[in-house]
Amino acid sequence: MSTARAEILAGIRKALRRGPLAAAEQAALEDRIRRHDRHIIPERVNRSTGELVELFLAKAGEVATTLEEVDDNAGVAGAIAGYLARENLPARLVAAPAVREFGVDWDTVPTLEVRTGSANRDDGVAVTVGMAGIAETGTLLLVSGADTPTSLNFVPPHGIVLLRRGDIVGSWEDGWDLVRRSPLPRVVNFVTGPSRTGDIEQKIQIGVHGPVRLHVILVG
Amino acid sequence: MQAPQRDEKPLRVGLFVTCLVDLFRPSVGFAAIRLLEDAGCEVVVPRSQGCCGQPAYNSGDNAGARAVARTLLDGFADCDHVVIPSGSCAGMLHHHLADLFADDAELGHRARHLAARCHELVSFLVDVLGVTSVEARCEARATYHDSCSGLRELGVREQPRRLLASVDGLELAEMTEAEVCCGFGGTFCVKYPEISDAMVANKLANIVAADAGLVLAGDLGCLLNMAGKASREGHDIAFRHVAEVLAGTDGTPALGRG
Amino acid sequence: MQGSNSKAFPASARAALDDAVLQSALHNLKSGFPVRRAEVVADLPEFEALRDAGRDIKDHTLANLDAYLELYEERVTASGGQVHWARTAAEACDIVMRICNDAGARTVTKGKSMVAEEIGLNERLDASGIRRVETDLGEYIVQLRGETPSHIIVPAVHVTRQEIGATFREAHDGLDPDRSLDDPRAITDEARERLRADFFAAEVGITGANFLIAESGSSVIVTNEGNGDLTQTLARVHVVVASIEKLVPTAEDAMAILRLLARSATGQEASVYTTVSTGPRRPGDPDGPEAYHVVLVDNGRSALIGTGFQDMLRCIRCAACMNHCPVYGAVGGHAYGWVYPGPMGAVLTPSLIGIDHSSHLPNASTFCGRCEQVCPMRIPLTRMMRNYRAVAHERGLGSRRARLALTLWVLVASRPVLYRWAARAGAAALRVLAFGRGRLRRLPLAAGWTATRDLPTPEAGGTFMSRYRRGQQR
């Protein structure tokens, strides 16, 4: 191990006026990690599932995320095509492999040109799948994986996220509990609205390096 | 004055007048005595008092601060409470005095005993004595500046506003950023005069925008700073310590006017 | 380490006060951030309790920092990443340069990182001939202008849109001269288009970290623009440069503090992007970096543990203290002369570069306490500034005249009889000097005051103590 490492750790221990932790103390820290207790959860998420959906819609709207609701999988392809048409966008998009899970039948919109995979520089519209919606702040929880490339969340100027109504949870910790069910993905993105900046005279501009528009299609 | 009746013997209150009031504005000291006596206190003014030591303490000269603050440890020993017409000096004594003498068992004990009994005047009237209104008259549209130490170290905010609301003829108009520092800061105003001036200019602009003819505050340092700036800029605005108005002004001209 | 100009604080402050453009920018800052913060804080009744939780989490972590760092390292390694330890700024730069060279880097993209500024990484990269592209819009503007950030979350807060437009015209080859760059939208679009190619071209992407999570060996970045995520997703190699006090034990610990961070910083309930990254690309992953490095920077921090300045290590760099500081609001960030401005800088700068180089910073405060009132981590900023004043006083720093005046004052004020006499004499003298006008326009030895302010004279009749005594005798 490097000298720097040893010296930094020794310096910290010296400052703390002790040596390495005793086994029991070390075990207590590891136990704290295993328990990963929550701290204070905002009261605002203590409500019924239906009300959480309402809160999610309201909070997401506050941060300039646009939303539409469809009844079932069958409505998804049409909703996407409708979004492209409304925004005057070419009928071309890149989709996450996970979109399959929604049983989207692209053939119902034959004019749509769909590529599946990660994002290229010139992609204009991405469609991906959210693991959860967090009502507390109107936040989308997106994770990386073979079927959900992270680049889709950031590269194309238009991001469309498919989200199941049943996947809306209350707090960030509730979202993280879903993440904890499987091995931790390489990237977990909490996304609260389209990209923005206040760097020019503190005037908020929506759409900087990340998506300019963020559109959620809530299914179910 | 509306204050609860006390059956037991009156509280013995020592007035620590503070160096700025002693030097610049004795009427604040007399106003404080009047307010405390009206509320049923027995007021004493021990001779052994000068400064709380804050100028040295805030300059990092802890030994100097100890030497100055030491002068306060004796005079107030027989008082139930020590009352101070300044949030800044009260904050110094209440929160920092004990730290200064932490290394000395004997003096440390006396410092802690004194610190625990120190109060800012207006919050003492309201929070300790239960005063809810005063009998005073003042025809003016006034604005109140929250001095930093009183506000943030001692929680003096609603108490002066509550009592001012009972003053006949007084209309209280809140300025924007009433809680932002005026730029006095003790020695800060002479160590960094240009920054201090920018801050007081900002404060004056807010005062002018509130269209008030009278500015009130609980600390003489801030008042001297704001009054001096207003006078230099040619504004016809009066500046007074809040105690002067609550006790009923006795005809003393406002700060800088005689 | 980046050179410090903190000794020139008074002169820099004066220049800043005379800079009309800067003053107008600062006016926007003072009127914007505090109002937005107050609104979102009012919307979260749990905010004060969360401040206690945030403080306790960091205190617990610092009390066990060695053990948590070891756990963290173990888990980074287990996820396929690599941890590097740097005692000093120079060591940290050496490590980053080695990683860049091993990756054959010609272009490096960088997310906003204050610790990178602190260790002077920008200068090292530039000197090496590697093309460095700052991707945060504010940092990019500051880079093109050859400046340093003047605020820790709004680096270009001192620059107007007209100046940015002019800077882009000068720096961006092939920019259509007819294209308008007058408004923030047009400027933002231009930056977006320009930087797109760089995100894809960069071999190495460097980010900072808002948190490191020991539980999983993860790094967390919190941004609004999406630049940090593009930087770390598209480059072949992701380098995280983070100081050791960024550590928290678990994701839940980070989330508690995240509730404080965005609200305190920009007045948002949540920043747009909070990203938790763990190791390099996994088998089957269609994108992400092939290598993941973390450079843990000490650079003086471990020496603060156990001292009266340890609490500063709780700082989460939200900038609420400077957004609410009337001194920062008057002079802006560059006057402070080093990386970290405002109240947090007035404590952190002496902690990292020494009080001998920065004694003005903890002194240039009125102790108004607004910084502490808003600090989400309850850092006792004024107490620590005062402690640095004491250190500076002990070392004899500061002007000799001020020290002499203080010594004389203590001499008098510690002797009540002498003091009462001096006060009486002073009051009388001031009244004589004012010729009965009630105020002084000039006063020898107090020119700092009277240059721009009158000094109201003492009331007629003598000091309080003398009048009170006379009244008692009567």
The CATH topology of the largest domain in chain A is what?
Rossmann fold
Largest sheet entry of chain B: 4 strands, parallel
Q: Overall mean pLDDT score of chain B? A: 95
Number of domains of chain B: 2
Q: What's the story with the biggest beta sheet of chain A? A: 6 strands, parallel
CATH superfamily assignment of the largest domain in chain A?
NagB/RpiA/CoA transferase-like
Number of strands of chain A: 12
Q: Would you identify the CATH architecture of the largest domain in chain A?
A: 3-Layer(aba) Sandwich
CATH class of the largest domain in chain A, named: Alpha Beta
SS field, number of helical segments of chain B: 14
Which spans of chain B have pLDDT < 50 for at least 5 consecutive residues? none
Short description:
The complex is a heterotrimer of chains A (220), B (258) and C (474). By secondary structure, chain A is α/β, with parallel strands linked by helices.
Characteristics:
heterotrimer, A: 220 residues, alpha/beta, Rossmann fold, elongated, B: 258 residues, 2 domains, 4-stranded parallel β-sheet, 14 helices
